């Protein structure tokens, strides 16, 4: 065991389960007999560079506070969207980071995040080898998008999926309340991978026929077929619920959303999207003459901790714990991942994986998990996703509202 | 006690508590020794005219099913937005309704709904007197808008308020995750009365400063003051959450939302609104240069039964029960309403009120419950609303999703 301190950070978009993983890291370090400090970097790698640390070992000494942490949405430590340049292009941030590591005798580095964050983990671990600095660097996956390679699924996805399926079930009842033709289009996050919109299929069950149609970016969106399908379904059932990924696109790869033309991009060069639902709403109204309404589930789908999946929180906590324990036992440059042992009964284990295989690769919904027409998912997807939303994990309530634990 | 059958219907926009009131009506009838049938009209008054009835006494004989009914969102019986013409203008619907009453020997009529539904109740009860048909007609209030006159608050409002406050609290944590200037604008239902947006104030508490600004239709919206306030707050706190009613308007009464110009109206002649949040988002981005995002809570705020207020469900059930009991004991032409006995400790009773005073009058948030600048609510509002969101009432879950009871 290296003598020194551990630092953990959270990065990228928040989820309802990212603090469960943070709690797992803290508990993994506590359980390992590690005797250094457990530090948290405030706002990810940006906080590291500013030496903005808090002492998590001290703050979360009381197990009751750790339970509150697990049920608090968004990143307790704050997050950032900073992407490190390639060290061969600009080594400034790497030199600065390792200066901080040396100054604070940091020997364990855990980073909880998605694709871009795993890229950071990978580059830092490679750089450590290059400059021969002894440090164990481990990644903990996190993303509601469920698009990380290697791991069976991603911490945070199950809670988002449970929220989406519940929202669809409740909104479908709402829409079905009038005896009239009506189309509700629910726009769900997912730029490239359709995992979140696919989760809408879980809403189905006895007495719950919706959503009637599901469109993901993994299959080209054909407006004429969409209108044909909606028309036939409205004639048959009056009320039709359509779930779509924000990133659906046509056969030429052109996004359905209007705002593509604006060319706006985020700091990672991803196109900023919004409005695919609105486009379909207008198409249904104008071309078919039906009452139509588009609803965006928006940021709420990633922070609705009041409806978190117990399975997700339990697993997210476990993967954080395993990553900390692995780092402390000397492992470096890897991401701790989920391995599905079996689906029926559902059984999961965690295991380290090659971080190069995890970073910068987006895992898509397999095309064979969509039907041929590309307007629904198959039973294979449902069997895969169903266990991930199992169980409820209610937060404490005070004055009628969920209790969160807030960084001092 | 009149010898005959009872019919109950649900009308207007659904809520998370309207089925609790339906359950209360069923239980009130069951408890009163009444020996007729308890019929439900499917899709409100439209179902009545079509003689589309189901036997609720039979369907809900098992108390376990009634518990499921209480926790099922949207109107179990289906709803309608039909507005009866004034009988002196067109008596067709009245004649038809009373033909149905006679044919099915209906002697008790209970209607659960909002402003427009209470208008229907009032007109039917007046018509009954005019044609001298013995029937007891009672209204049960319902609206997330909380804008019914006479009653202290409206069944359904507490659950919507709890959802809104929870969503704001969770989304505020999400927005605050990055160390950067950012403005989140949350658009909340409320065309004329700002009760729902006002409920966002309940999200505040220790460690929860948001929302920073709240705008209701009850005070004129001044764009220059809004931008001034946002700018000062961003400079001070970086992240600012703004809660607005969809129906905010300027000093001349012009709606902030863009779509006013379209002139679209619903069947009651109300202007169809959307987009006030988007207008403010663009203003913040263009005029102040801050990152801004507008989120609409949309239909979800009225059907999120998974997060219902226990207080609301309990009261909604009680007011339905009291209305049925009153009808069966001979009362007619009245609405059963909430009377607040005290706020601290919170104590509520139900009492009949004059339906003419309830119908067609929208109760606004008192101007003195907004601050002088019109950008927040006062402690008086918070004291009024806080008890209404107390307590959780979780539905059963099966396969990770809430169980609803569906009309056969």
Architecture overview:
The structure is a homodimer of 408-residue chains. In chain A, helix 1 (18-31) runs antiparallel to helix 4, helix 1 (18-31) runs parallel beside helix 12 (310-328) and helix 9 (223-237) crosses helix 10 (276-288). The first copy, chain A, is built from 14 helices and 13 strands. The first copy, chain A, is 36% helix and 18% strand. The first copy, chain A, is α/β, with parallel strands linked by helices and 408 residues long. Chain A folds into 2 domains: 5-155 and 305-360 and 391-402, Rossmann fold, CATH 3.40.50; 160-302, Phosphofructokinase domain (Rossmann fold). Chain A has a 7-stranded mixed β-sheet with strand order 3-2-1-4-5-10-11, sandwiched between helices. Chain A has a 4-stranded parallel β-sheet with strand order 7-8-6-9, sandwiched between helices. Chain A has a two-stranded antiparallel ribbon with strand order 12-13. Chain A has helices at residues 18-31, 44-49, 56-59, 63-70, 92-103, 115-131, 157-175, 195-198, 223-237, 276-288, 300-303, 310-328, 355-358, 379-385, and strands at residues 5-10, 38-41, 53-55, 106-113, 136-141, 182-188, 213-215, 239-245, 291-296, 334-343, 346-354, 397-398, 401-402. Chains A and B meet through helix 7, strand 9, helix 11, strand 12 and strand 13 of A and helix 7, strand 9, helix 11, strand 12 and strand 13 of B.
Which whole number gives the mean pLDDT of chain A?
93
Specify the CATH class of the largest domain in chain A.
Answer: Alpha Beta
| Major sheet of chain A | 7 strands, mixed
Q: Strand percentage of chain A, roughly?
A: 15-25%
Q: Structural class from helices and strands of chain A? A: alpha/beta
């Amino acid at each position: 065991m290296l003598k020194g301190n551990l630092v953990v950070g959270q990065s990228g978009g928040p989820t309802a389960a990212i603090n469960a993983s943070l709690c797992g890291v803290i508990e993994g370090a506590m359980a390992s007999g590690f005797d250094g400090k457990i530090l948290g970097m405030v706002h990810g790698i940006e906080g590291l560079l500013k030496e903005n640390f808090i002492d998590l070992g001290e703050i979360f000494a009381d197990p009751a506070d750790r339970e509150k942490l697990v049920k608090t949405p968004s990143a307790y430590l704050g997050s950032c969207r900073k992407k490190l340049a390639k060290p061969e292009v600009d080594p400034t941030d790497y030199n600065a980071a390792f200066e901080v590591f040396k100054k604070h005798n940091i020997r364990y580095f855990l980073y909880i995040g998605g694709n871009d964050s795993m890229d950071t983990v990978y580059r830092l671990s490679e750089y450590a080898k290059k400059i021969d600095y002894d440090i164990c660097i481990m990644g903990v996956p996190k993303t509601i998008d469920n698009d990380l390679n290697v791991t069976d699924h991603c911490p945070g996805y199950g809670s988002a999926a449970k929220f989406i399926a519940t929202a669809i079930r409740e909104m479908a009842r709402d829409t079905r309340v009038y005896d009239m033709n009506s189309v509700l289009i629910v726009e769900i996050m997912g730029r490239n991978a359709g995992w979140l919109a696919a989760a809408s299929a879980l809403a189905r069950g006895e007495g719950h026929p919706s959503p009637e149609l599901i469109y993901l970016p993994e299959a080209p969106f054909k407006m004429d077929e969409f209108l044909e399908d909606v028309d036939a379904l409205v004639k048959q059932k009056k009320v039709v619920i359509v779930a779509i990924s924000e990133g659906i696109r046509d056969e030429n790869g052109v996004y359905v959303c209007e705002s593509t033309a604006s060319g706006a991009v985020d700091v990672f060069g991803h196109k900023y999207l919004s409005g695919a639902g609105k486009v379909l709403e207008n198409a249904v109204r104008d071309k078919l003459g039906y009452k139509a309404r588009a609803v965006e589930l928006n940021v709420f789908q990633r922070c609705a901790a009041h409806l978190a999946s117990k399975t997700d929180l339990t697993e997210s906590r476990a993967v954080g714990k395993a990553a900390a324990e692995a780092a402390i036992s000397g492992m470096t440059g890897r991401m701790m991942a989920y391995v599905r042992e079996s689906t029926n009964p559902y059984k999961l284990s965690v295991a380290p994986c090659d971080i190069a295989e995890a970073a910068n690769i987006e895992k898509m919904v397999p095309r064979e998990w969509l039907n041929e027409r590309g307007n629904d998912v198959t039973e294979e997807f449902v069997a895969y996703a169903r266990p991930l939303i199992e169980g409820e994990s209610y937060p404490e309530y005070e004055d009628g509202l969920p209790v969160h634990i807030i960084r001092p």
